[in-house]
Design goal:
- The chain is α/β, with parallel strands linked by helices and about 270 residues long.
- It folds into two domains: about 5-75 and about 150-235, Rossmann fold (3-Layer(aba) Sandwich); about 90-145, no CATH class.
- The protein is built from eleven helices and ten strands.
- The strands form two sheets. It has a six-stranded mixed beta sheet, with helices on both faces.
- The model has no long low-confidence stretch (mean pLDDT about 90).
- Adenosine-5'-triphosphate (ATP) binds near residues 17, 37 and 45.
- Its EC number is 3.6.3.-.
- Keywords: ATP-binding, Hydrolase, Nucleotide-binding, Transport.
- Pfam families: ABC_tran.
- This is Putative ABC transporter ATP-binding protein YxlF.
């Protein structure tokens, strides 16, 4: 059986800047995989290569066994981006129709059911530009899932969602994996990743530094939790202590304010 996602030796360079360097990992059927890494480590680059937004510099990606840049792969992929590149002058319904045209497998009845669940049914004839941030995220989730993709790729899926929408989003993720599909989630939420992901892939400075089931990684690296493991493997922990001391000193209320001293000195 083909894996929902297979990434082999993926490299993407932007001019002289390396976005991701030789990354290999898989998302197996029924698995929720977290893609974790510090700012600038290569998560979005990886997602944008998978979804075909960026051309690969080298390496290969298959979605359900199909090369990622083919129509067969795109029809099996659902993507929730972190930013909101939506055509604001279309209504929600028009956008759905556009998607139905682009994704032959899109189940319109399922899409309308999902709109209902996410409280969007009464807003379908509004311009997308008039949706709130959370409404746009929900709309994008419906569009990403209504064709029942083999691979669901989500960039910070809970960002900007209210608690009810977050519970619904998590249910969509669990149901999708429960049906045997693969889910890849890029996130900075290490606590949610430790709780909700079957596996995690940690990237740092463009390279995969470890991957596996959270419990297995904690045991292998003798770490108390995923946050401690993340800080150790990405090297962030070393500089963090110094930055915290610096911050404490800078924000110390007893510290003499050089600007205030200078001003009052000038007045007297
Ligand atoms: N379009 C681009 N042109 C040039 N460099 C880029 C481009 N996109 C990303 N990069 C660089 O590639 C590296 C990886 O960036 P990327 O956006 O993939 O990181 P990220 O892990 O998603 O970060 P964040 O958590 O801040 O979103 C960074 O050094 C970034 O500056």
């Amino acid at each position: 059986m083909d894996f929902p996602l297979q990434v082999d030796n993926l490299t993407k360079v932007y001019g002289r800047q390396r976005g991701i360097d030789g990354a290999s990992f898989t998302v197996r059927p029924g698995r929720i995989v977290g893609l974790l890494g510090p700012n600038g480590s290569g998560k979005s680059t990886t997602l944008h290569c998978i979804t075909g937004y960026h051309r690969l510099s080298s390496g290969g990606i298959t979605i359900a066994g199909h090369p990622h840049d083919t129509a067969a792969a795109k029809n099996r992929l659902g993507f929730l981006p972190d930013d909101l590149p939506l055509p604001e002058s279309l209504s929600g319904r028009e956008l759905l129709m556009l998607h139905a045209h682009l994704r032959p497998g899109l189940d319109l009845a399922a899409a309308y059911d999902l709109f209902d669940v996410f409280d969007l049914a009464d807003h379908l004839d509004k311009y997308v530009g008039d949706y709130s941030h959370g409404m746009k995220r929900k709309l994008q989730l419906v569009l990403a899932t209504a064709h029942r993709p083999r691979l669901l790729v989500l960039d910070e899926p809970l960002r900007g969602l209210d608690p009810e929408a977050a519970i619904l989003m998590n249910t969509v993720i669990e149901r999708s994996a429960g049906a045997g599909n693969g889910v890849l989630i890029a996130t900075h939420d290490l606590f949610a990743a430790e709780r909700g992901c079957d596996e995690v892939v940690i990237v740092s400075e463009g390279r995969v530094v470890t991957q596996g089931a959270p419990a297995e990684l904690l045991e292998r690296h003798r770490a108390a939790n995923l946050e401690a493991l993340f800080l150790a493997l990405t090297g962030i922990g070393t500089g963090l202590e110094r930055k915290l001391q610096h911050l404490t000193h800078t924000l110390d209320p007893d510290r003499i304010d050089p600007v205030a001293t200078e001003v009052s000195g000038g007045i007297s």
